[in-house]
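INFO  loader      accepted 1 record
INFO  loader      residues=332
INFO  predictor   begin
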Amino acid sequence: MLQKIIQAIKNFDINQLDTLLEDGKSYMEVSKTQFLKRLAKSFEALKEEGCTAFDDVFFGASRSCYKKGEGMTFITNQGFYLDLYIEEKNGAVNDIYVCHDLVNFIELDKEYDLGFYFYHDEKIGFIPNLDYVAIRDEYNQLLAEIELLKPSTNLDGLERLYPTYQKLEKLLDKFGLFIALEYNLYSNAYNLIMEIEDLFQIKAKEHIAIDAIIDFQKAKTEREKLIWYFKNRKESLCLSHISIPNDLKKDPFITYTSKSLNIDIDVSGYEYVLDYFKHLNELYHEFMEKYKPLPEHIEQAPNGAVQYKLESFLRLQNKYIDIVDKYGGSAF
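INFO  predictor   done
INFO  writer      dumping tokens
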């Protein structure tokens, strides 16, 4: 049985694993279906890289956990690897789990880790406490209120979300951001809070944007535009989830699209605020592309490491050092 399961994993054969693994057992403390679904995502990612199977399997042992079973590394020639422990009992495989601290008996070129984990609230037998229930209720309430605003609303309409948004934010603040790494609910709630905050920021920056746009129009040279960018970058808004029409005066609707928030927003009266964020975003990408370091520049950096920051790029290129000294951060 063990060898058949190893071979199925090596061949990315989810169907064979589904047949070999028992329905009533948990794997990594989740149901077989959930475990195989997550494992299949790793296989699909490898297929997108041109891999059709792991090229080899090597044994190892964990430095930090004391699991009973075989520790092994499934690895491709490109350096993609998955470290697993397979627990065998009475001739049957009792459990399979990812090991994040596996040491192999020979040196391997392990470059791209395919390991994964499950949140506490995804595991079989999870019992929510009162804090969890309170966050779940406020999160669901916020989602329901967002649905009532659809298919579209304006920025003023978003203010209806604020009381529930604030309650949820305060509940999450009690725990801190790192707890989002442990619970699926908290991760989703944090993401939703940050995404709604993005939309609130459009209206919140209206007074800053007026003066900033005037200053931007006065900036004619690259030097002036760089100074303008550094002065305003702390006010920048990530536009990765926001689709903005080319002409907001003709089409004043922006679209916010993410895993948890999909809504059209009428920004009539706030078009200039979106223009402000667009100018910041476009300048950033323009400067980052123009001054990205060449190989000879990277050689000048300590250990050949360069922070992905505009001021680091400019220092390596020896450009606008006085501006970087005044507004920027560290050298690398």
